[in-house]
Amino acid sequence: SQTIHQWPATLVQPVGSPLSLECTVEGTSNPNLYWYRQAAGRGLQLLFYSIGIGQISSEVPQNLSASRPQDRQFILSSKKLLLSDSGFYLCAWSVGVVQGASPLHFGNGTRLTVT
Amino acid sequence: EDKVVQSPLSLVVHEGDTVTLNCSYEVTNFRSLLWYKQEKKAPTFLFMLTSSGIEKKSGRLSSILDKKELFSILNITATQTGDSAVYLCAVCTNAGKSTFGDGTTLTVKP
């Protein structure tokens, strides 16, 4: 069966520090991979998605970047965190080449607090 | 700009009640509408709807889509405390873009 691992679960970082959140998927090949951010009491905002190694699409301009060095690994990074980067970050995967054709499967999320 | 609006934003009921959650949308080139349940961390998939008028059912939960009026409802009958969660609606377009609503927070009291 497929599983998704996301770490760390919580993170407190000072403003201006770097960030690296990692997500790995097991039990499936060539998944679509996604990074979402969820503000308190709000829905999910898509940050990045990837349909293959090295292929990253950004949905919103921001202080963050994403990379996919391996088929089932997705990394969210920042060189210098801002206070506004605080939030709940969720990694997700789906099958198939076409987005929206199959459900998303989410990791347990990382709660990031920038102080 | 694509929009997904869920109502109510929050709801408090007692065990055994029936609830109806609403999701209306305005998107270009609709592909599918999905419902998720988020208890504490990871949202979990409930239903995916692509055709109007066909009810999807899983136990006490059911959902239906109206593509003419651009909305979907999620029904939960005989609610239990374990149904307490945030219910998220997402609409996907043919371009592959997903837009989420802000969710409905359901609290079921014993």
Give a short synopsis of this structure.
Chain A has strands at 3-7, 10-13, 19-26, 32-38, 44-52, 55-58, 65-70, 73-78, 87-94, 105-106, 110-114. Chain A has 115 residues and is mainly β.
What proportion strand of chain B?
over 45%
The end-to-end span of chain B amounts to 41 Å
Structural shape of chain B: globular
How much is the average pLDDT of chain A?
91
Name the helicity range of chain B: under 10%
Global Rg of chain B: 13 Å
Low-confidence stretches of chain A: none
Q: Main traits of this protein?
A:
heterodimer; A: 115 residues; mainly beta; 7-stranded mixed sheet; 4-stranded antiparallel sheet; 11 strands; B: 110 residues; 5-stranded antiparallel sheet; 0% helix
Question: Can you lay out the helices and strands and say which pair or pack?
Answer:
The complex is a heterodimer of chains A (115) and B (110).
Chain A: E1 3-7, E2 10-13, E3 19-26, E4 32-38, E5 44-52, E6 55-58, E7 65-70, E8 73-78, E9 87-94, E10 105-106, E11 110-114
Parallel strand pairs in A: 2-11
Antiparallel strand pairs in A: 1-3, 3-8, 4-5, 4-9, 5-6, 7-8, 9-10, 9-11
Chain B: E1 3-7, E2 10-14, E3 19-26, E4 30-38, E5 44-49, E6 56-58, E7 61-66, E8 71-76, E9 85-93, E10 98-100, E11 104-109
Parallel strand pairs in B: 2-11
Antiparallel strand pairs in B: 1-3, 3-8, 4-5, 4-9, 6-7, 7-8, 9-10, 9-11
